[in-house]
Amino acid sequence: MQKALCQLGRAVGGQAGAKVGSEQGLSGSRDTILRLVRTAELPAAVPPKKVGVDDWAWKRGHRYGTLLCDLERAMAIDLLPDRSVETVAAWFAAHPSIELISRDGSSEYAAAARKGAPQAIQVSDKWHLVKNLAKALQVLLTSHFTAQRKKKTQEVGRKKESAFSPDRERKLSPQQARIQNVHREDRLARYEQVIALAKQGMSQELIARRVGVGHSTVSRWLRARTFPERKPREQASQLDPYRSSVQKRQSQGYHNLMGIYRELQARGYQGSYATLHAQFAQSSAQTRTQQALSSPLTPVLPSARQATWLFLRRPEELTTQEKELVQRLRQLHAEVDLAYLLVQQFVQMVRTRTGERLDAWLSAVASSPLTDLQSFANRVSEDKEAVFAGLTRDESNGPTEGHITRLKLIKRSMYGRAQFDLLRLRVLSPSKTRKTSQDARAGADHTRRKGGVKSLLPGEKGLTSQHTTCGSSKVA
Known about the structure:
The protein is of the alpha/beta class. The longest helix is centred in the first third of the chain and has 37 residues, at about 125-160. Among the domains are: about 1-40; about 50-125 and about 395-445, Nucleotidyltransferase, domain 5 (2-Layer Sandwich), CATH 3.30.420.10; about 130-155 and about 305-380, no CATH class; about 240-270, no CATH class. The protein has a five-stranded mixed sheet, with helices on both faces. Helix content is about 60%, strand content about 5%.
């Protein structure tokens, strides 16, 4: 019974194990189950030759541990409480049988491998290489798409400005201007008097009585803190009562202004033909502007993330619509076209394991004006030996990533209340339901997976983290 309870504890934890055990007739509290799990011994470790290493989060962004996986058997073989160079290097040094280490682009793990296992070949994981390339490409495409959208917006703005001539402002006669100025000086004098009385501590009600304005006006002037200029009044036009008739005739397709003018005269219009002509020109300009603003900014650009995965996929797997979209995006700018060619060359190296082309690719990126891809290429150059090994060998960090996912499930099911020793025992404990090492290795080796990323075009659902992970795996 103790053995059965121990197996339950390893599989589902203390609380869940006690519940499942009671349903199966096994009596044992959660504390008893956890005590049995802690006293159980792990199976004897087989000296590993090919090891995958990756970090896992105690608390994301703050504290991390390390998981090590035997790539040949696709099994987690140890769990470390941190990811420091000293801790990981000490573990490598305690396992001299290691011949190969698969890792991401972490400088800490690279230094630990050089220090603790200098005899081992370091292999940069292909999935992480493609993921980092995708990030650099997305930044590049975002900048070009933003510039393109701003360009289209400016074109529409220029059309809007050209539709209205600047001489349509209401012109005042000298007498009207003088009268308007007199009224403004009177308001300004009242405003200054209100401010002076307010500074003397007089209430707003008394100020309103003294100055001869409304209480709300006094309150509004005090809140404004500066003299509020009046908005110019719109001048009434003799054409106002007949505007609906003019619009009706225009909607009917009748654009003979002189004919419309005579019709209005027969109905009592006493204005001039020039007023009608100005109104007609303004109405036509507004119609043209509305049409320009309402028309879509064709062609519609996808998001930078959607375009990134289209650039990474195999050209032969794209649909006709996707091929047309990629071709249109490449025509936006010479840098976008060059980025597409360089990205396709790199992912082709990943797919075909032709790492001997890496030097030529790095030289092409260095001589290009693509600063975002140059940053990615510089990181590749700093870790060139491991990247070359990743582009020429079949080993992958996929099994390690799978156990990281399993660790997250176990850790969250324990609600953070268990100690590291219990987490380590549960992660490293073998499961009867696990497949054989050969099947597990074949299933975890995502280099054998075929097929492209799910098509995501404008109008379809956006990419999620699951799409991103799946897409990188299938590209790699």
